[in-house]
Amino acid sequence: MAARWIARRFERLIWKFRLISIVPVVLSLLGSVGCFVIGAVEVFNAFLVIMRLPFTTKSVAAKTIAQMVGGVDYFVIGIALLIFGYGIYELVISDLDPSLEGSEEQHTNILSVNSLQSLKTKLSNVIVVGLIVAAFKKTIGFEVNDATDLLALCGSVAMLALSAWLIVRSHGASHD
Question: Is the Cβ–Cβ distance between 119 and 21 less than 8 Å?
Answer without folding.
Answer: no
